[in-house]
Structure formats: structure tokens, C-alpha cells
Fold NADPH-dependent F420 reductase.
Amino acid sequence: MSDTSKPVIGIIGGTGDLGSGLAKGWAAAGYKVVIGSRSREKAAALAPELGAGVIGEDNVGAASAADIVVLAVPFASHDATIEEIKPAVQGKIVVDAAVPLVPPKVSTVQLPGEGSAAQIAQRLLGDGVKVVSAFHNVGAAKLHAGGRVDCDVLVFSDDKEARAAVIEIAGAVANRGVGGGVLANSAAAEALTSVLIWINRHYKVPGAGISITGLEGAAQA
Amino acid sequence: MSDTSKPVIGIIGGTGDLGSGLAKGWAAAGYKVVIGSRSREKAAALAPELGAGVIGEDNVGAASAADIVVLAVPFASHDATIEEIKPAVQGKIVVDAAVPLVPPKVSTVQLPGEGSAAQIAQRLLGDGVKVVSAFHNVGAAKLHAGGRVDCDVLVFSDDKEARAAVIEIAGAVANRGVGGGVLANSAAAEALTSVLIWINRHYKVPGAGISITGLEGAAQA
């Protein structure tokens, strides 16, 4: 069931592993979710499996329908997808969850020259879009298994209100969202993804994540 | 009390906040610790306050006396200090704990062009030195308060045995050491330091850290 006081969440790359897992989690938490895909047919076919009321559209359709647009596409299609949805997301919050992995060495940190995928997104989208970076370290397998994932979600943005809005939706799919500072700090979470892939392989675990310690008694913010 | 089966740990920059905190922790865990400083007198005066048997030397003296050499200097003196101790650390493990903060914006990630401070250290020290990266995210205040710090320590190296040796000494000052992959992955922990500084300020906590989730039942490694 969806709640009209909550933002509509559009997920670009919503038929992928992370995108569909996030859709499932937000639908279960009562959000209206629209998944987008290059193929509208594919998205429409998958949508009902992810929860009651989940709708499938093409990427531009999902971006147009949503209040908060989550970008969950492989880094190889990151820039082209951003150019495609750019007109539909002006004035909105765009949450970049793309990780700049460079195959085949996905367990080695190889950040882009610009610093982070999130900073590239902000440059391409322009100042009319509030770019937030989050969800890089949430295990897709755990999302599909149902229930909230046992990890924290670091949330970065140059816009305070946009950061707060994404901290709130993060708390619906993981233990909690934790603000991590300006958009440039996204480099930390993007780099951590390669570290967590290495840990999964080395320690033979399905979905390592991170938790922030020392926040007991923290000021609300 | 020190244990002769354990490696001797030398701490370059051992009179600083992080260095002296680590010295205190390792001394309490039974390691023989030699702290180094630019001023031998300063190190010798502080050493007895950090634990029984802690010795103070100049930086080269501490590097010469140790099996494992920990570099805990500000990034501004990182390269010069490495050049100074280079002859004394050939064949040894050097643990780079330096964080590439760029004042005044220390809560904004600003990684060096080479990727990480640790990769700079490896290049300067040459292939005869096993560089490991660790301890970027351990709160010095918590070390000085005594007891192990409630966080995990990510440990990066291109050398498997060196990584294992540092994972072991990390477990003496924090919850545990966790391998994080190759030295290039140090970028993640170095970037995280700025994120944690931001979190400390924003949430008004004294020492945020990280913990790796999902390691229950992990293979020993």
C-alpha cells in the first residue's frame, strides 16, 4: 500500500539487481515506486513482482513520475542515462547510487579523475538538480531476501534538505541513513564498494556492509 | 610488560595524538613499543607516560629498532619523513596511517592525484619495503581513554603476510582488523576519515568510526 504523504520514488535501472531490490524494500515500506528501464515492457512485467502498486515505465517515464529519482545503473551507462533523463529531473532530487567500478578489477578502487561518479552526475545535470549520493554499499541480495538490510547508508549532498530527504528513505531499506557531508565525500562510499567486494570474496560472505560506530547519543540532524 | 614473541612496534610521529594513543594501546597489550619524534628528548620524556617499557628515540632510531614501523605523521610531513626513515626500514613492514587531509577543509575528501597517501609511500620507499595502510579511522581520543576502540580497522596491502601481521596488531587496539584488499584500496579508508570528521561535527560525537557488518561466519583469513 502506498502513502500519499510520502514522496514517489522513481528508480532508473529499476530492473537491475540493486534497483529492483530497492524497489521491493520501498514498496514494502509503503512508498509508491515507479521502476524505469530502457524497455518499458520489461519494467512493466517485473513491477508487480516487486510489490503491490509498483509501476513499470521507461527511464524517462519513471523520472517524470517521481519526486525522488534514484539512479541505479552500471557505471558504463551512467553518463548516457543522465543525459537521457536530464530534462525530466530538473528541480528534483536525483540520488546517484552508481559505483565507478572498472571491470575486470572490480575489487580494486579506481575512482574517476573527477573524484566520484556523483560529482560527474552533478556536473552533467546542472545546478537545477539536487544530486545526492547514497546506497553504494547496500547488498542487493539482502534487499531481495526481504526486510531491512543490516548496514548504515552514508548519504552525501551539497543540499541539506535533499540529504535529509534521502536519509529518511534510506532508513526504510537499511538500519539507518547517516549524513556523510558534501557531495565530494561520495568518493569514500564509492571506493568502499570495491573494498566490500574484496571482503565478500576473501572472507566468503554474501554481503558485507558498514555501520558507523560512536553515534550513541548523537544530536538529531 | 613486553612479550619477546611479539614484533617490536616503532611509531614515527609517536608524540602526536594518534601515535601516542596507539603506543599506549600496544604497550597495554604487551607489545614492546618505541616512539619516534623529530626530537629524541621529547619522545624520551613522553615514553614512560604511555606504558611500562615504552622507549623514546628520534624517528630514525625508532625505525631502526622496530620490526613493524607505523607512520603516524601529518600529511604535510609525510613525504619528507618517509625519505628520512627510508634506509632504516628496508625489508620491514611500514604501516602508513597518514591521512591526506587538506586544511582548512578537512571534512571534505581531497585525495591526492596518485590515489592515496599509501601509494605515495610505496613509491617513495621502493619494492624492498612492504607498505600496509591502516589506522586512519581510529579515534585518538578513544585510544587515550584506555581500552580497545569500538571500531574495525581496515587493513590494505599488496603483500598478504604483511597484511596479516597488521591485522593482528590492529586487534590489540580496536575490535578487530579486517583485510580490505590491495594497497590502492587505501583510498577508501583515507577518504572515510574526512567523512568521519564531518560526522563528528554534524552529529556532535567525539569519535565516530566504522564497523564491517555481515562478517558473521566468515572464513578465517
Q: What stands out?
A: Chain B touches chain A through 46 residues (CB under 8 Å). Chain B has a mean pLDDT of 95. The beta strands of chain B are 9-12, 33-37, 55-58, 68-71, 93-96, 130-133, 149-157, 174-181, 209-213. Chain B has eight helices and nine strands.
